[in-house]
Design brief:
The protein is mainly beta. The chain contains 4 helices and 12 strands; from the N terminus they run βββββαβββαβββαβα. Helix content is about 15%, strand content about 40%. β9 and β10 form a beta hairpin.
């Protein structure tokens, strides 16, 4: 489980295909603190550390299901990936409850500067069955974009905006998101449970 508070944006240094799997190696400032089998969120996708060569890098593996649901299959060497280690249960929940299970992707429609902050608008494909499962946003609700816990504004049926402060812009890969960039979305788990209860009642 994660909180959506990104620890760092780290660089992809190698990509290797093996069958339908993609092995992703990244340079990480806290690589020496990691262990094999540890869960880390990458652009909001929970992946397991499979290799620690001791050179300041580590490797994770994304299977086809993950590549189909997320933007990880679009990564190139040199790209930045938002990372967060799993939440410590004795700490504060600064973001919101994030599972690391990406629901879908969205495309950035616009980036607007607003005198010290940025407003990003994202659009995603929506279907009635998705809405029934709670795959939607609500005004002032929570959403995870590339692993970043954010507050929704201007929520519409298939789109929403978020406001990004300078710290988040500079310390995550939001600094590289532009019109046309595809991002990962995880909708609020509480909303999903409420939608499921309503469907079954």
């Amino acid at each position: 489980m994660f909180s959506g508070i990104v620890e760092d944006a780290i660089k992809v240094v190698a990509l290797r295909r093996e069958g339908t799997n993609l092995h992703i190696t990244m340079q990480c400032p806290f690589a020496d603190e990691l262990r094999i089998d540890q869960s880390i969120a990458h652009n909001g996708v929970c992946l397991t550390v499979v290799s620690l060569p001791g050179d300041g890098t580590y490797t994770v593996t994304a299977i086809q299901e993950t590549l189909d649901r997320s933007n990880l299959g679009l990564l190139k060497v040199g790209d930045l990936v938002n990372v967060e280690r799993s939440m410590m249960m004795n700490g504060r929940l600064d973001g919101h409850i994030v599972q690391g299970h990406v629901d879908t992707t969205a495309v950035c429609e616009s980036v607007r500067t607003e005198e010290g902050s940025w407003r990003y608008r994202f659009r995603y494909e929506v279907a009635p069955e998705m809405i029934r499962k709670g795959y939607m946003t609500v005004e002032k609700g929570s959403v995870t974009v590339n692993g970043v816990s954010l507050t929704v504004c201007d929520s519409e049926r298939d789109s929403f905006s978020v406001a990004i402060i300078p710290y988040t812009h500079d310390h995550t890969n939001f600094s590289r998101i532009e019109e046309g960039t595809r991002v990962n979305l995880e909708f609020d788990i509480i909303g999903k449970y409420l939608a499921r209860l309503t469907e079954l009642s």
